[in-house]
């Protein structure tokens, strides 16, 4: 009658693991170290949680503050190429000089405004095409047999085994005037002159959609895969045809997956630098490229930093949508 | 067990002229090599509550899903109301189903869930609103129409699922373990509610359950299934009092089975000798069985009288033993009595008097006599 539920039986750690843990606990140096840490109020729990926080503070927050600082300083010739914020003046007086001119400059010069708008437009368009291609893929993978499912998921993730940069370079070989596509089409006699594809916006779209497609497919797959298929049976039972059941049941239930996938594509695509630099033409303005040129060609660090901060502010909205969406999903499953 | 139906109930299955509402003819369903449903033939009549009863994996749910149209039979024919259902998709069948998991749409409110089926028929909005309100009142969920399924308790969800499957006024309602997720009190209550709704709306119910008590309470007839086959069809009392096989006797209720052989085989009575009982069993009805065949005597625990004194006649239908175990269940006590042959017999006895120290009840290790009426045992041959 009373059999132990499987989940409970599984929770017991294997014997060798328990023995190993007991051995570690009895190990002299371990006991000394953990005792000292406990004296300072550091437990295993704070250590585990604190380490990634420390990492984020050191390598995200501190650099961000440095960039923020540079963005409000004056340009100067020399090394570093900006004025310090604080000046020591005689008689124990410190002056703090904050230059908001760099931000004002972003509004004055239409280059930046156009670059921002163009970045958002290109990222949004790419996201749309990722969704258009990714949704049927994710749906197909989620509805095949489990053995096929693993193989197909493997194939979605396989490109990550090659360097991102190499894959973008490979697109040059495919898209250029004497590249794979043009040569094939000319050999078949479909066209007489090569179609110019490289160094156009089209090439940038291709590159972004190709590179970010897995980020769309995977969250969508995770969402569609856990959907209760009896809901579709219930819909059919109540007189709903399969196509309509997709629109009224599957699609609304997959909105969290759509939002997650779209944000995961949109957010990095806005700041994308490598793809427009390698595949785009001189006129495909994206904010990542402008940033690069300010830093390395104009050597105007303060303006470049202002561009970076402005981009971050711009992305706060989408990031908050993503966070809210994930929070809501976590809440719904409780 | 309470039977809520009036005594003057219709029994269309006894009327040879009655046209069955559902005809299941030699239906087989295979999944690969596995035979889930094995040549089942069954007639179900209009207005019945028909229960498919069986252990998990016996094929009862597969049979139900074939009625709903989610599975196509590998062989055989299903017709509902005279129409052959072969190749008809679920969304075109005159059937609604209440799912075991309820399958409520999580992104829709109670009202939208219930209205879903009516919207598929493109009914006018006012009529939809009216019918949804009426059915929500029937299942007493009027105040909850704006809630989402995750804001409801198990019992409320179950009532919404019932409302959703009833609102289209189907001629046939399929219920898959409808009360499985409810606790005992709520379940009993809902069972009666289901029967009342069925009588009010005149729908034909086909219910799948593994719970014999549920089947006994709800059903007009029960079909007991085992390994893809229907082993017996009958009213709850037929199934309980006249099981035709050891499997049915054992599956529905508890039973003492004694293996033996017919020593006297007359048209109006039989006498069975069993090695497990010292005295023969006398049964006052005939049995159709080839001579010398092995038979089993099935004796329900509540039909055995337990007493300290020997019965009037020691010739047959009694046994002597020692009380080994007593289980006090409140309304009844279960005695396990060990006979001289070593066989343990299960006896239940209603606790007609309050248990107290003053009450001298039969207790452990006491020598007792078991006896039963000659009409009580059932002889089964398979």
Q: What's a concise summary of this model?
A:
The complex is a heterodimer of chains A (334) and B (382). Chain A is mainly alpha-helical and 334 residues long.
CATH superfamily of the largest domain in chain B: P-loop containing nucleotide triphosphate hydrolases
Q: Greatest chain-chain interface? A: A-B, 18 and 25 residues
Shape estimate of chain A: globular
Q: Determine the strand fraction of chain A and express it as a percent band.
A: under 5%
CATH topology of the largest domain in chain B: the name is: Rossmann fold
Structure write-up:
The complex is a heterodimer of chains A (334) and B (382). Chain A has 334 residues and is an all-alpha fold. Chain A is built from 16 helices and two strands. A two-stranded antiparallel sheet of chain A has the order 1-2. In chain A, a hairpin with a 3-residue loop joins strand 1 (86-89) and strand 2 (93-96). In chain A, helix 4 runs antiparallel to helix 16 (301-332) and helix 11 (230-237) packs across helix 12 (242-253). Chain B has 382 residues and is an alpha+beta fold. Chain B has two domains: 12-94 and 170-246, Rossmann fold, CATH 3.40.50.300; 254-380, OB fold (Dihydrolipoamide Acetyltransferase, E2P) (Beta Barrel). Chain B is built from eight helices and 20 strands. In chain B, the strands form four sheets. Chain B has a six-stranded mixed β-sheet, sandwiched between helices. A five-stranded antiparallel β-sheet of chain B has the order 13-12-11-14-20. Chain B starts with 21 loop residues before the first strand and ends with a strand. At the A-B interface, helix 11 and helix 12 of A face strand 6 and helix 2 of B.
């Amino acid at each position: 009658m009373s059999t132990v539920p499987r989940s409970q039986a599984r929770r017991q750690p294997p014997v060798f693991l328990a023995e190993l843990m007991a051995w570690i606990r009895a190990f002299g140096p371990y006991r000394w170290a953990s005792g000292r840490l406990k004296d300072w109020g550091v437990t295993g729990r704070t250590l585990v949680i604190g380490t990634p926080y420390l990492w984020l503070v050191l390598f995200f927050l501190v650099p961000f503050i440095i960039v923020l600082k540079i963005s409000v300083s004056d340009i100067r010739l020399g090394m570093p190429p900006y004025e310090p914020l604080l000046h020591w003046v005689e008689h124990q007086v410190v002056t703090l000089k904050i230059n908001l001119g760099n931000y004002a400059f972003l509004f004055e010069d239409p280059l930046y405004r156009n670059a921002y708008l163009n970045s958002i437009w290109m990222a949004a368009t790419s996201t749309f095409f990722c969704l258009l291609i990714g949704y049927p893929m994710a749906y197909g993978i989620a509805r095949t047999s489990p053995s096929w499912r693993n193989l197909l998921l493997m194939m979605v993730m396989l490109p990550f085994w090659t360097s991102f940069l190499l894959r973008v370079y490979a697109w040059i070989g495919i898209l250029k005037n004497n590249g794979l596509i043009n040569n094939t089409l000319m050999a078949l006699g479909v066209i007489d002159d090569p179609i110019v594809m490289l160094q156009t916006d089209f090439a940038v779209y291709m590159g972004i959609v190709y590179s970010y497609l897995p980020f769309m497919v995977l969250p969508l797959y995770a969402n569609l895969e856990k959907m209760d298929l009896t809901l579709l049976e219930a819909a059919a039972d109540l007189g709903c045809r399969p196509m309509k059941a997709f629109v009224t049941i599957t699609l609304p239930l997959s909105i969290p997956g759509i939002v997650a996938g779209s944000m995961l594509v949109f957010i990095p695509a806005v700041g994308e630098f490598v793809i427009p630099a390698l595949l785009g033409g001189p006129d495909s303005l994206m904010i990542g490229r402008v940033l690069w040129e300010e830093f390395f060609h104009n050597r105007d660090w303060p303006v470049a930093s202002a561009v970076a901060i402005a981009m971050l502010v711009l992305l706060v909205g989408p990031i908050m949508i993503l966070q809210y969406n994930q929070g809501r999903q976590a809440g719904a499953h409780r | 067990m309470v039977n809520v139906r009036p005594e003057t109930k219709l029994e269309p299955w006894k009327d040879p002229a009655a046209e069955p509402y559902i005809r299941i003819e030699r239906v087989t369903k295979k999944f690969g090599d596995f035979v889930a449903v094995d040549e089942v033939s069954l007639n179900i009549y209009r207005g019945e509550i028909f229960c498919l009863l069986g252990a998990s994996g016996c094929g009862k749910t597969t049979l139900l899903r074939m009625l709903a149209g989610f599975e196509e039979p590998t062989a055989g024919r299903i017709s509902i109301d005279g129409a052959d259902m072969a190749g008809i998709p679920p969304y075109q069948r005159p059937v609604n189903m209440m799912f075991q998991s309820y399958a409520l749409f999580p992104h829709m409110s109670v009202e939208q869930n219930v209205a879903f089926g009516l919207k598929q028929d493109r009914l006018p909005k006012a009529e939809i609103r009216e019918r949804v309100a009426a059915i929500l009142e029937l299942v007493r969920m009027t105040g909850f129409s704006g809630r989402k399924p995750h804001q409801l308790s198990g019992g409320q969800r179950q009532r919404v699922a019932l409302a959703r499957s009833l609102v289209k006024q189907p001629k046939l309602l399929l219920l898959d373990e409808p009360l499985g997720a409810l606790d005992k009190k709520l379940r009993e209550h809902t069972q009666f509610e289901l029967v009342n709704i069925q009588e009010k709306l005149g729908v034909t119910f086909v219910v799948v359950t593994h719970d014999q008590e549920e089947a006994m309470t709800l059903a007009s007839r029960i079909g007991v299934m085992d390994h893809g086959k229907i082993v017996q069809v009958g009213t709850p009392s037929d199934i309980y009092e006249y099981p035709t096989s050891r499997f049915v006797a054992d599956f529905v209720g508890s039973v003492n089975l004694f293996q033996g052989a017919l020593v006297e085989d007359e048209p109006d009575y039989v006498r069975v000798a069993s090695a497990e009982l010292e005295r023969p069993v006398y049964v006052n009805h005939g049995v159709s069985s080839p001579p010398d065949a092995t038979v089993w005597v099935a004796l329900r625990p509540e039909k055995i009288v337990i007493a300290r004194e020997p019965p009037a006649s020691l010739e047959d239908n009694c046994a002597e033993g020692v009380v080994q175990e007593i289980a006090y269940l409140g309304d009844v006590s279960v005695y396990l009595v060990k006979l001289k042959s070593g066989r343990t017999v299960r006896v239940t006895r209603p606790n007609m008097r309050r248990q107290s120290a003053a009450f001298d009840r039969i207790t452990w290790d006491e020598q007792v006599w078991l006896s039963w009426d000659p009409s009580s045992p059932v002889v089964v041959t398979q």
